[in-house]
Design brief:
three-stranded antiparallel sheet, mainly alpha
Length: 439
């Protein structure tokens, strides 16, 4: 770790220790003030119990509620029950209560002497998933366990990401807090997936490789396999968790940087994901990761692009045609590959569903727009000659008188023979103002 990162980590650790100590102190002050606000006898009459005795409400096996905190029951033996620490944390988070300090310290001492067996029993794994799925109440309980060193005993790989600073300024939290926040965001998306436990565990481990050199996705895949096996998942579930950690950035990077109309893009994502159920989990993990990163990492536009990519990949994995570009959520692209303005029509259809072009139809012979005309302006190809009419008067008066011409010239007609005394004998003669050759 660099000197700057080491300094930031020490700063975060000190700030977290001060914050946790302040929360515990003020919570104890509030409890004492509430106890002194009423007399013991009056408090007992109001609550219907004997004076001086607190009311205990059971939360889980070995865990009860007392004075607004989750504490251990009188009969609880954490040194004999290694799952009790996770059961108490899950019960406190589900009830929205803080975990009492003395209860955490008892569990920490028992965990140091008798840790959980490996692989974990099914109850321990279920209690961890319950803790992660409690929503926003998970954060204070997790921080209390981490302050007493319980998290690093349960998950040894957590030590490398604890209070580790982020290198990307878009991140709001440190690496370990970002992992917990991602699990909190994923808890709201569990109804969209078929395996909420895999989603929550993958959300907790998706950036676990940032404590190691190299690509954190590649390093995190190996660590996620080891952790999933330690938690007691079978080989198939372990592979799914490792795949989610390895490709947790695949959808957002592909949707925002690649051409979704390219079949090779959809094929590459489908090959990396492998199944529709894994794609479903990866979609929820992508959204939870972006929401936990910061306000600049997720938007409606990015969500639309990711949803469009997921729809296309799901269609490819199911063997059905890829949805057309016109029905997609993403904005259409122009012929150069750049996205056009919002509301513009699609520039082209999807190549996956584009029908083959029909053969070109033979072009018919073009007819002339106007039939040929003679010098006088009349149609020579007409079967019947047009009616006689004088030509349009020119802009400048002609010195020649009106005469008749034939088209074509015929013998025996005076305009053709040059005899002005003979009347027109040709039915095809037309008027003209052009001066004859003898004028």
């Amino acid at each position: 770790m660099l000197d700057a990162d080491a300094l930031l980590r020490q700063t975060y650790e000190s700030a977290r220790t001060i914050s946790y100590a302040a929360d515990v102190t003020w919570r104890e002050v509030g409890r004492v003030l509430r106890a002194r606000s009423l007399k013991p006898t009056l408090r007992g009459l109001l609550h219907g119990r004997t004076a001086g005795k607190g009311e205990r409400s059971p939360l889980a096996e070995g865990v009860v509620e007392l004075d607004g905190e989750a504490v251990l029951a009188r009969t609880a033996r954490p040194e004999r029950d290694p799952v009790l620490v996770l059961r108490a944390a899950a019960a406190a988070a589900q009830a929205g209560l803080p975990l009492a300090t003395h209860a955490i310290r008892r569990c920490a001492t028992a965990t140091a002497t008798k840790p959980l067996p490996e692989p974990w029993p099914a109850e321990a794994r279920e209690q961890l998933v319950t803790l992660l799925g409690a929503g926003t109440h998970t954060v204070p309980v997790w921080e209390a366990l981490e302050a007493e060193g319980i998290i690093t005993r349960l998950l040894p790989d957590w030590e490398r990401v604890r209070c580790r600073p982020q290198r990307n300024p878009v991140h709001t939290w440190t690496v370990d807090r970002h992992l917990v926040e991602t699990a909190v965001r994923a808890a709201a998306l569990t109804r969209r997936v078929h395996r909420p436990d895999l989603l929550l565990v993958a959300a907790l481990l998706h950036d676990i490789g940032k404590g190691w050199p190299g690509d954190h996705s590649v390093a995190g895949e190996t660590i996620a396999r080891d952790v999933a096996a330690r938690l007691g998942f079978n080989a198939r579930d372990t592979t799914v968790i490792a795949t989610l950690v390895r490709h947790h950035l695949l959808l957002i990077e592909t949707a925002t940087r690649r051409d979704l109309d390219d079949p090779a893009t959809v094929g590459a994502v489908a090959e990396a994901v492998g199944s529709t159920r894994t794609l479903e989990l990866l979609h929820a993990l992508t959204e939870a990761d972006a929401l936990a990163t910061g306000p600049a990492a997720w938007s409606t536009w990015r969500g639309g692009l990711v949803a469009d990519l997921v729809k296309r990949v799901a269609a490819r994995l199911a063997g059905s045609p890829t949805p057309s570009c016109a029905a997609s959520v993403s904005r259409p692209r122009n012929r150069s590959g750049w996205r056009s303005r919002p509301g513009a029509p699609a520039a082209r259809s999807c190549p996956c569903t584009r029908a083959p072009r029909p053969p070109p139809r033979p072009t018919p012979a073009r007819k002339p727009r106007h039939p040929p005309r003679n010098r006088s302006g009349w149609n020579c190809s007409s079967p019947s000659p047009p009616a006689r009419r004088p030509a349009a008067a020119p802009q400048r008066a002609l010195r020649a008188p009106l005469r008749w011409v034939c088209c074509p010239p015929r013998p025996g007609c005076w305009p053709c023979t040059g005899s002005p005394s003979a009347p027109p004998t040709c039915s095809s003669s037309t008027p003209s103002t052009k001066a004859p050759s003898w004028y």
